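Much of our argument rests on the idea that a fold can be written as discrete symbols. Part of our work consisted of pairing the sequence of a single chain with a tokenised description of its backbone. No coordinates are needed to read the tokens, only the vocabulary itself. The record that follows shows the chain in one-letter code together with its fold in token form.
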Amino acid sequence: MRRGGAMRWIIGLDLRPRSHGALHFATWLTKTVPKSDERFIAVHVLEPEHLRAALKYHHLDELIAAARESGRRTLEREGAGERVQELEILEGMGADDGLIEALARHDADALLVGRIAGRSEAALVRLGRVARRLLRRLPAPVVVVPPDLETADIGGGPIVALTRLDESSTEACRFAGRFAAQTGRRLVLLHVVPYLELPFLAGASVDEIAREQQRAAEVACAAWIERLQLHVDEAVVEQGDVLDRADAIVEAREAPLLVVGASRRVALDRLATPSLARELAATAAVPVAVVPPRA
């Protein structure tokens, strides 16, 4: 990511309804950030399975022209048309490959994509193939947006960054700080420690242990912020389940974006055990930015 200055965004443009929320978030972003500061490039990837079927009846030029016209209408309908500087129609082996190629070619800072499941929908598949692959590969910060997000739903509160107080959270908190500065929002850092369950104890000692854990976590959080010289408006330390507490804080503070870091784990481990970042991206009611650690 370029330090300071404008951010450059790639918008993964899906011409199906599932990209509705991502486009509304992009619209909000284009209207929130001064026009001269940001650059937005919408990219739609034509995948082989779509091309094989359509090329029996149409020339490739026709398909590209039709996709471009459909993309243009979609951007205009969602209100982002005049703020998106470029609309690209690419051919790729997969949508994730095409979007990653566009990220590199434009030296973009982040990628914005939609997911399948709505904010309150109990769906078996929540992320979708493209979002899932992008979160495994994480070529850059990837912002995953629920498909039913409306511009009016985007909260007026601070940007919330979830931190583990380790290297997996460093770049996420820096990205959150930059995003907060660009959008004129406050930055809240959230650190959640597991509540220590001691079923064999009762009474005042359990409460004192919890208070001691809370104090230790607050000291550690303050030291981590100072060591990294992060500019944070507020640090919040909570005890409990990370997913539950993150959801609760985001809702209570009316946050427009939750930012979380991703750890570098081997591929098989990531396939077997969903990461916290992917779980939040798949279930949160707000857009979630998943940020890779520095390579």
About this structure: Strands lie at 8-12, 39-46, 86-91, 110-114, 142-145, 159-162, 187-193, 234-239, 258-261, 288-291.
